[in-house]
């Protein structure tokens, strides 16, 4: 089942063309790693898919419903409903600094979905256990390491029970040890067949955990395939040069 699709997606910032006629899709239970040159539009594509950036043209379809069709967005109420099927984990964590970890997790379910507090708290504790932070429910964000903050951010995204989880370079600001903590959680989610799109510079994760690797450059997708195909025998010479330079 197709969970997410972009067709003919275009995005420019002034005269700077970032995405040009990009076609992209994700199947249910699939982990897609998006790699490529810095500035190739990876994060912009991701942000367009969840309506954090407004695309200029194309279609965006989430589980069969149009978020954008022919460059025209769905009405605001419909946009919010469709986008609620997706969750986002950011590079910079984006935790609420003035409340503890537990309250970071329960705020959106309670106030957006009107979930009873006792139920939200119970689910929050389950998610904190999943990410290895069951003992941090009462901690304030400023007391956590970067890796712990990112794991809390993952747990918070999961609290909204998304059908698709998007990651925008979730480890780029972390040192190698903390990166490993976060990638372990993401690998666990991949093994559980959570549908995920991961913009990443972590080639090890792309090789080990992704079902499909998408390489972006020159305003679009240059090549895609299984990790074995992409890392073992890429066809596009630009992809081949990139892969050979980092492995």
Explain what the structure shows.
The chain is of the alpha/beta class and 247 residues long. The protein has helices at 42-49, 76-83, 101-111, 117-130, 146-159, 176-191, 203-209, 227-232, 237-246, and strands spanning 2-13, 16-27, 31-36, 57-62, 65-69, 72-73, 86-89, 164-168, 196-199, 212-217, 220-225. The chain has a six-stranded mixed sheet, sandwiched between helices. A five-stranded antiparallel sheet has the order 2-1-4-5-6. A hairpin with a 2-residue loop joins β10 (212-217) and β11 (220-225). 40% of the residues are buried. The model has no long low-confidence stretch (mean pLDDT 95).
Q: What structural category arises from helix and sheet content?
A: alpha/beta
Low-confidence parts: none
- The oligomeric status of these chains comes to single chain
**SSE string, helix = H, strand = E?**
EEEHEEEHEHHHEHEHEEHH
Number of strands: 11
Helical fraction equals 25-40%
Rounded average pLDDT: 95
Q: Looking across the biggest beta sheet, what order are the strands in?
A: 7-8-9-3-10-11
Rg, Cα atoms, Å: 18 Å
Q: Estimate the strand proportion.
A: 25-35%
Task: Summarize the main sheet.
Answer: 6 strands, mixed
N-to-C CA distance: 34 Å
General shape = globular
The number of helices is 9
């Amino acid at each position: 089942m197709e969970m997410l699709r972009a067709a003919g997606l275009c995005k420019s910032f002034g005269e700077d063309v970032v995405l040009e006629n990009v076609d992209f899709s994700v199947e249910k239970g699939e982990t897609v790693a998006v790699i490529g040159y810095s500035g190739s539009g990876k994060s912009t594509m991701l942000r367009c898919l969840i309506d954090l950036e407004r695309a200029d043209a194309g279609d965006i379809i989430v589980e069969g419903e149009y978020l954008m069709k022919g460059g025209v967005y769905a009405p605001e109420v419909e946009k919010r409903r469709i986008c609620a099927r997706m969750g986002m984990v950011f590079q910079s964590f984006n935790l609420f600094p003035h409340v503890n970890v537990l309250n970071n997790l329960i705020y959106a379910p309670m106030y957006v979905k009107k979930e009873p507090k006792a139920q939200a708290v119970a689910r929050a504790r389950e998610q904190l256990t999943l990410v290895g932070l069951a003992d941090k429910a009462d901690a304030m964000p400023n007391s956590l390491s970067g890796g712990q903050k990112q794991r809390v951010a993952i747990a918070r995204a999961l609290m909204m029970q998304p059908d698709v989880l998007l990651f925008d370079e979730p480890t780029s600001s972390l040192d190698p040890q903390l990166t490993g903590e976060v990638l372990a959680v993401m690998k666990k989610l991949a093994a559980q067949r959570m549908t995920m799109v991961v913009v990443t510079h972590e080639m090890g994760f792309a090789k080990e955990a992704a079902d499909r690797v998408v390489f972006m450059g020159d305003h679009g997708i240059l090549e895609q395939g299984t990790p074995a195909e992409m890392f073992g025998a890429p066809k596009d010479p630009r992809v081949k040069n990139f892969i050979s330079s980092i492995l």
